[in-house]
Design goal:
By secondary structure, the protein is α/β, with parallel strands linked by helices. It has one domain: Spore Coat Polysaccharide Biosynthesis Protein SpsA, Chain A. The chain is 29% helix and 17% strand. The protein has a seven-stranded mixed sheet with strand order 2-1-3-7-5-8-6, sandwiched between helices. Helix 1 (12-27) links the parallel strand 1 (2-7) and strand 2. The protein is globular.
């Protein structure tokens, strides 16, 4: 499977981590394309911002965080456009991801989370859902369980109550899924990346076991 590995060329930590990420993915049989990430300085989009969402709240409260989060989600929008143009399923990989097994012939509809085993042990989600555990005996591709804890709680969001992707460090998307995401952006506007990839817009599934984990250090480049 081809993966788009997003990194920041002007950030020494990102360059270092992306080098480790690239080596791990290529060693395990993934095809890697290095993609320079969009930052507030290089932002080039013109999409509207979704009303009532988390991202629109940042625009009033914290302009720096808003600019950072808008740039982050634009990386995904441009990735979805590449997936649709190519007509092939591809993976979105952030610089702090590490692959430790090969891609499989996974069959999924829209979005496949590649690191769910580890998603609640890192970054902003670490320690928040200690009682949530995945079933030990699972199929290679699974729907999110009914007790999945990560849902949108933004009061006025059109996505309130939806199940959200557990971070965007590593996921695969089909051309059909990418088309649905682009339609959501066109219809409602941009929202923070992990809030817009939700089960109202696409079917979220995950693979077992997870072939991707995190690097040990969180650079927090998406926090502004």
């Amino acid at each position: 499977m081809k993966c788009n590995l997003i990194y920041l060329p002007d950030h020494a930590g990102s360059v270092e981590q992306s080098s480790s990420a690239r080596e791990s993915f290529e060693r395990n049989g993934w095809t890697v394309e290095m993609v320079e990430g969009i930052t507030p300085k290089t932002y080039r989009g013109d999409h509207k911002i979704m009303a009532g969402g988390r991202l629109s709240g940042f625009s009033a409260e914290d302009n720096k965080k808003f600019a950072t989060k808008r740039a982050c989600v634009t990386n995904h929008v441009e990735f979805w456009e590449r997936v649709v143009a190519s007509g092939e399923t591809q993976a979105f990989i952030e610089h702090d991801a590490i692959a430790f097994s090969a891609p499989q012939a996974w069959e999924f509809r829209d979005v496949l989370i590649l690191n769910l085993e580890f998603a609640f042990d890192f970054g902003a989600l670490k320690g928040k859902f200690k009682n949530f555990k995945l079933d030990a005996l699972l199929d290679s591709v699974n729907e999110l369980p009914h007790n999945y804890p990560l849902t949108c709680k933004v009061p006025n969001s059109p996505y309130k109550g939806s199940m959200m992707i557990a971070g965007t460090a590593a996921y695969a998307i089909t051309p059909q899924g990418a088309t649905k995401m682009l339609d959501a952006v066109e219809e409602r506007g941009l929202e923070q990346s992990d809030y817009i990839i939700n089960d109202m817009n696409v079917k979220l599934e995950y693979c077992n076991p997870s072939p991707v984990r995190f690097n040990s250090r969180n650079l927090r480049t998406s926090h502004g």
